[in-house]
Amino acid sequence: MRIAQVAPLHEAVPPKFYGGTERVVSYLTEALVELGHEVTLFASGDSRTSAHLVSGCSRALRLEAIQDGFAPHMVLLEQVRRMAHEFDVLHFHLSYLPFSRFYDLGIPFVTTLHGRLDLPELQPVFNLFSRVPVIAISDAQRRPLPQANWLGTIYHGLPEQLLTPQLDRSPSYLAFLGRICAEKRADRAIEIAARAGLPLKIAAKVDPADRDYFRTVIEPLLSQPHVEFVGEISEAQKPAFLSGAKALLFPIDWAEPFGLVMIEAMACGTPVIAFNRGSVSEVVDEGVTGYIVDDVASAVEAVNRSSMLCRATIRARFLARFEARTMAQKYVAQYTALAGNACANLSEAS
């Protein structure tokens, strides 16, 4: 198939550090190319891909001093629109931005929704565009919008050899990975580690929007002797970081749509201890790949039990459920159905 992947421009594809959506777009794009499809990636010019790259801007917007991030995305959407006839299907990763420009174009398209959907301002958007096809990244994510035209749920996946267990690492600490913000609750991770009597390593990005929260809430806690703030780490650093952890702490305080860091830990054979919010119960296999908890006390108890879990089994469960090729095959099935429906509609019209 001739497939267009349309990524956000905030980060390169793949991002050099943090960037969940762009990372998944990269994994999906490369897996589709490996499956033999003709793929064009619309992304920032500093992206790296084996697909054909069409740049929407020279560098990731994160690296540019711009005040209006919507303007480059409008240019990107017009680029896609002008080339749309060259593809069998268009796959967007830009939330609802493509809806009004592509719903009546006649080219099959689908949007994967990567973010939170429980915001009240989204209701009128999906009431208006209730026939636009969308894909969820967890069943929990889609619950606030039952009126949306859900084609299905497709979980994220990672390339098989991207993150692998580092068997020479002896697990000795707890890990927190991702981003510092109020809903991710790094403060809760610090408390869990303290009560469990274990060191905690925090490898996390601090966005400009979260700097005040970091300075006022998290930074004062970093002086505790059991806490080490590593900062943002690259993909290449993750296997050692996660393999050296007794468990990944995922003490979220919001309805997480997916939680890529959970399957990153599983890829390294590391147990996940996660609060029961959002997608957690769909991603973590209780008592196999980790433990699902409701409060700090139960998280501490889960830490004490984490050594009972088999790290080889965790890795095997990751391969069975969250490998990138499996993700790509599920998307291809949706693309094929969309293209088939478009052909059928065209035949009926003629």
In terms of topology, how is this protein built?
Layout: E1 2-6, H1 20-34, E2 38-43, E3 52-55, H2 70-83, E4 89-92, H3 99-102, E5 109-112, H4 122-128, E6 133-136, H5 139-142, E7 149-153, E8 173-179, H6 186-196, E9 200-205, H7 211-218, E10 227-229, H8 238-243, E11 245-250, H9 260-267, E12 272-275, H10 280-283, E13 290-293, H11 296-305, H12 311-321, H13 324-349
Parallel strand pairs: 1-2, 1-4, 2-3, 4-5, 5-6, 6-7, 8-9, 8-11, 9-10, 11-12, 12-13
Helix pairs in contact: 1-13, 6-11
Superfamily (CATH H level) name of the largest domain? Glycogen Phosphorylase B
Structural class by sheet pairing and helices: alpha/beta
Helix content: 25-40%
| Biggest sheet, spatial arrangement of strands | 3-2-1-4-5-6-7
Please give the CATH architecture of the largest domain. Answer: 3-Layer(aba) Sandwich
Main CATH class of the largest domain: Alpha Beta
Kindly give the count of domains. Answer: 2
Largest sheet: 7 strands, parallel
Query: What is the number of helical segments per DSSP (H or I, 4+ residues)?
Result: 13
CATH topology of the largest domain: the name is Rossmann fold
Overall average pLDDT: 94
